Amino acid sequence: MSSELFTSHKKNDVIKKRIVDKNKLIVSYLPVNVKNMAKFKTSDLKENIVVFCARNVDEKQPWLFRQMRDNLRDNNIQFINTLEHNFSKKEYYELLAKSKVVVSFALQENFGFSIAEAVYLGCVPVIPNRLVYPEFYSKKYLVLKQNSIKLIFIKIMFFFTYYVRNRISYY
């Protein structure tokens, strides 16, 4: 029997249910390295930046982000699709650390690592009320009609105003 690969959070289940012999178990840890990211955490001073850090594939709907960016250019907000730039990991984390909002239009998501990284670095998530997001984030960050650019923009503007006055709790 060959070795089997599982993520760290499944290890105990796999051993307990005897899915694989524990001597043949290879554990892969999550790809988010909080230790490396911690040095990028900044003060509460954030810029009016909305980031989209998903892959440019159909199920992430990047055209909705471009549509939002194109329709809302005159609002003193920067809209940055991280994959339209050639950021190093350091530059990427610096961008997340100074951004106020991270947005997702995902139709398919298994965990949402890029959203988790952005939230860890202080971005407010504006995310779909579906997939894995309702399990991890409070309802105030979820958007019911995800394809409505107007509703998403209203939520983003609320958080821009609110962020200045209050430190936001994600749960």
Notes on the structure:
By secondary structure, the protein is of the alpha/beta class. The protein is 35% helix and 18% strand. Helix 1 links the parallel strand 1 and strand 2. The radius of gyration is 18 Å and the shape is globular. About 4% of the residues have low confidence.
Short summary of the structure?
By secondary structure, the chain is an alpha/beta fold. It is 35% helix and 18% strand.
The percent range for helix content is 25-40%
Q: How much is the average pLDDT?
A: 76
Low-confidence stretches: 4-9
In angstroms, what separates the terminal alpha carbons? 43 Å
**Beta content:** 15-25%
Write the layout of secondary structure elements.
Blueprint: E1 4-7, H1 11-16, E2 25-28, H2 34-38, E3 47-52, H3 62-71, E4 78-81, H4 89-98, E5 99-103, H5 113-120, E6 124-128, H6 133-136, E7 142-143, H7 149-165
Parallel strand pairs: 1-2, 3-4, 3-5, 5-6, 6-7
Summary keywords:
single chain; 171 residues; alpha/beta; 5-stranded parallel sheet; two-stranded parallel sheet; 7 helices
